[in-house]
Amino acid sequence: MPNSVQTLQLKQLSSLWQIWEQGAKSHPDAIALYDPHAKPPVRISYKDAFEQINQFGAGLRSLGVNFGDKVALIADNSPRWLIADQGILAIGAANATRSSQAERSELLYIIEHSDSVAIVVENLATLKKLEPELHSLPVKQIILLSDETPPEGAYNFQQLLDKGSSKDLGNPTIKRDTLATLIYTSGTTARPKGVMLTHGNFLYEVEGAQSVLKLQVNEKVLSILPTWHSYERTFEYFIFSQGCTQIYTNLRTIKKDLKEHKPHYMVAVPRLWESIYEGVQKNFRDQPESKQRLVKFFLTTSQKYITAKRVVQGLNVENLYPSLGDKFKASLVVLGLWAVHKLGHKLVYQKVREATGGNFKYIVSGGGSIAEHLEDFYEIVGIEILGGYGLTETSPITHVRRPHRNIRGGDGQPLPQTETRIVDMSTRADVPIGHQGLVLIRGPQVMQGYYKNPEATAKAIDPEGWFDTGDLGYVSKWDDLVITGRAKDTIVLTNGENIEPQPIEDACIRSPYIDQVVLVGQDQKQLGVLIVPNLSALEAAGLIPPDSTLASVLPELNQPKIRNLYREELNREVQNRPGYSINDRIGVFEFLPEPFTIENGFLTQTFKIRRNIVFERYQDIIVKMFTS
User: How far apart are CA 287 and CA 456, in angstroms?
Assistant: First the structure.
């Protein structure tokens, strides 16, 4: 079916279930879901996926789950998660979603707070994790997504499909304002809030994405982000509306999967693009010195080429309004370096593309700010990133960079029908174009509110429907949004200077010797950083023994030779960043004894650093940094 017909029909839909109905009719044999790591591997066509969704929903309905009921879906990425998600929504129920890896107390809170009458869990281990408190909650039905033998009165995945195979969905009257899901915020500073998103919220997002990209039936999309998160979830609904094949991967197998499955698209967070970049850099460092010099020459030349090209095209976030003189000078640079850049592509960059499968049309980055050097690198090697902006409360996409106006460092233009306001934080008066202020959003993607929390809803959404994002940014005269920081993350020095940490942190991690950083300095005279060092770079430089662990070499890192190296790296990268001021200088730094990971609680499921957790656990180090 042509994409234009799909788009026309989508505007007439009232429920997400109808996307699958369309897919089963127009491309029934196309593969919707492919998990190569399941044993045995799982391939499910659009026709079979639609059938399983109906059976899952009908099975729940036969167990007494009704329109408007809540069902807790506690599981992780798999084709069965998608079947369960859509099956729940197909009968007009709503799901409350979270990873099975989340803390036990948080999962129990979500089940209770969401008023879930049933739970769908990853496996027996997840169910056991919730006992015995689960039995005191008003949960009437328990479903396992696994094939394990369930406890008495519960059902596993296949048993529920069998139960629903001869029954129907009950023809529920699902409208665009029907609640689809409760997505609970991370709750790093308080109890998590349940964001209420409707079928209409998601359908609008799918329509908006179609206005940006036209995908084709059978194109391949690699999936790695938590599927219950609004960012990944919305993107999945979009690709399924286009008849694409979703291939599941994970952090252990992603490099292999990129080469083997050769995806056309992938959506991820900056941390993942950074890890791929670092893998390439490590490969460069392992080459003979002569080849390293050649690679460095090409990268340096291509950096100048793409920077000049952006000026010519009017796509430089640091110079959105170039003069004719600026464009003329930049065009001379482009003409002078074009041949060298193309040679670099043939000799070096093409091999990088091949390592990612070689078929990427676009990759999508969101869920946080992507560092400038990553934007530069992927543009140099010919892999185009479409960045975007949004929050869980906005389903999540509000802005996205278009292929024809892909301003690196920017956050894109608004989706159709989406309004953006930039206001003064104190007065809430609109600020002039190009001036920084608090970002407000209004549009069809804004949530219904926080579940059972009218006070928080009223604080987030004003009577006119404007949602307070809590982010700082500005817009250009062409409606390009540029996010500059998070209002609550702003560091205020004792001289009264306000510092946004993200741009400085992005500059710091340009250094090959730095893996992760967190900027600190609230109420201090100067800034400081907590550093997770890049051990592979230190090993390659002969500064630490091979196969070292962070804990084992931590004392060695404080030797003058290594500390002087890091001082030079911090000074150079921070001072070379656009917009540098003397207040941005890093005065003090310390090394941390472990990296930030999801497992140790420092990262969210989408790899964002939980700053408050870092500040809490390393308070002693932070205090010592500024007092010694």
Answer: 55
3-state SS record for 373-422: HHHHHHHHHCCCEEEEEECHHHCCEEEECECCECCCCCCCEECCCCEEEE
Of residues 583 and 96, more confidence is placed in 96
Judged by phi (left if over 0) then psi (alpha if -120 to 50, else beta), residue 3 lies in alpha
Instruction: Give Dmax (Cα) for the chain.
Output: 77
Helices (H) and strands (E) in the chain, counts: 22, 25
**Count of beta carbons in the 10 Å neighbourhood of residue 345:** 18
Place of tokens 């919220």: 201
What is the Cα–Cα distance from 183 to 390, expressed in whole angstroms? 14
Report the C-alpha gap between 456 and 196 in whole angstroms: 12
Look at the chain and count its residues.
Answer: 628
Rounded Cα–Cα distance for residues 348 and 335 (Å): 20
Q: Provide the pLDDT confidence category of residue 193 given band limits of 50, 70 and 90.
A: very high
Q: Which of 558, 507, 585, 512 is nearest to 285 (CA)?
A: 512
Q: How confident is the model over 71-114, as pLDDT tens digits?
A: 999 999 999 999 999 999 999 999 999 999 988 999 999 999 99
Model pLDDT for residues 475-510, shown as the tens digit of each residue: 999 999 999 888 888 898 888 788 889 889 999 999
Please indicate, yes or no, whether the overall pTM of this predicted structure exceeds 0.85.
Answer: yes
The tokens 């051990």 sit on which residue? 535
Residue where the block lists tokens 């499955």: 261
Reduce the DSSP state of residue 530 to 3 states and report it.
strand
Contact 308, 473 (CB under 8 A): no
Question: Quick check: 164 and 186 in contact, CB under 8 A?
Answer: no
Say what the alpha-carbon torsion angle 285, 287, 288, 294 is, to the nearest 10 degrees.
-80
Give whole-number Cα distances, 47 to 170, 246, 254, in Å. Answer: 20, 15, 28
Q: Are 118 and 72 in contact (CB under 8 A)?
A: yes
| Stretch (H or E) spanning 586 | strand 586-591
Helix, strand, coil distribution of the chain in percent, nearest 5: 40, 20, 40
Q: Alpha carbon of 442 to those of 367, 394, 477, 578: distances in Å?
A: 19, 9, 19, 31
Q: Is 7 exposed, middle or buried (0-12, 13-18, 19+ CB in 10 A)?
A: middle
What is the distance between the alpha carbons of residues 347 and 335, in angstroms, rounded to a whole number?
20
Q: Is residue 313 exposed (0-12), middle (13-18) or buried (19+ Cβ within 10 Å)?
A: middle
CA dihedral 53, 59, 60, 65 (to 10 degrees): 130
Domains recognised in the chain with CATH numbers: 3-174+213-252+262-267 (3.40.50.12780), 270-381 (no CATH), 415-487 (2.30.38.10), 490-627 (3.30.300.30)
3 state DSSP class of 504: helix
Q: Which helix (H) or strand (E) holds 536?
A: helix 535-540
Q: Is the four-CA dihedral 52, 58, 61, 67 of positive or negative sign?
A: positive
CB 33 within 8 A of CB 82: yes
DSSP strand pairing (179-184 vs 481-486): unpaired
